[in-house]
Amino acid sequence: MLGAELGQEVGRIIGRRIVDTEGPKIESTYSAEGTFRTIAVTDLGTYLSISRPDGALYGQGQGVLTTIDGQIATWIAQGLGRFTTPHVIRFRGSVIYHTDSSGSLAFINNIVAVFEYEVNGIGNTSARNWEWIYYLIELGINPVIIYVNHQECQIPHDVVPPLSSVSFIDSLPADKHALHDMRFRFRVENI
């Protein structure tokens, strides 16, 4: 499920090189400034674009986010791009963040996000990221455990009736950043 916007940034391509003329495969490096939640970041990233016969571009990349107070997070990403005009390419895909930070970027550790990244013919870039919310439910144990983005939430056994079949329908977040306010709806089928 698509969550709240995680961040946005604008920047510029600062280097390119041809990796292989077959395809071709082009490596681009960019530097961008932006915010993740309310934290100002600098993003330095490098990605490889590979042209496909159908006109799509496969992209994969990696990079580093830094903050003014010295916090660091890394990311890896992959996606598909298309020319939206003769001089503009828009990529959409997924990105995974990692940090050992216990400071301002600690919230981004092990976050999976979806992104939209655009680069124009003169090398200007822009990107937006949205957190991807996912759920894992462990049934058959006492108590029932629900994981929301790797964070455990236990439901006491006396709240859950004996079930022969439970399927997740959706969530009704009161506040997408407050796990304790998350309400879940389930379909219960007794066999």
How would you describe what is shown here?
The chain is mostly beta strands. It folds into 2 domains: 131 residues, Beta Barrel (Porin); 54 residues, no CATH class. It is 0% helix and 66% strand. It contains no helices and 13 strands. An 8-stranded antiparallel barrel has the order 1-2-3-4-5-6-7-8. The protein has a 3-stranded antiparallel β-sheet with strand order 9-10-11, with no helix packed on it. Strands 12-13 form a two-stranded antiparallel sheet.
Count of the domains: 2
Would you report the number of β strands? 13
Relative strand content? over 45%
Strand order of the largest sheet: 1-2-3-4-5-6-7-8
| Second rung of CATH, namely the architecture of the largest domain | Beta Barrel
The poorly predicted ranges are: 155-191
CATH overall fold name of the largest domain: Porin
Kindly name the structural category.
Answer: mainly beta
Termini gap: 29 Å
How can the largest sheet be summarized? 8 strands, antiparallel, barrel
Mean pLDDT: 80
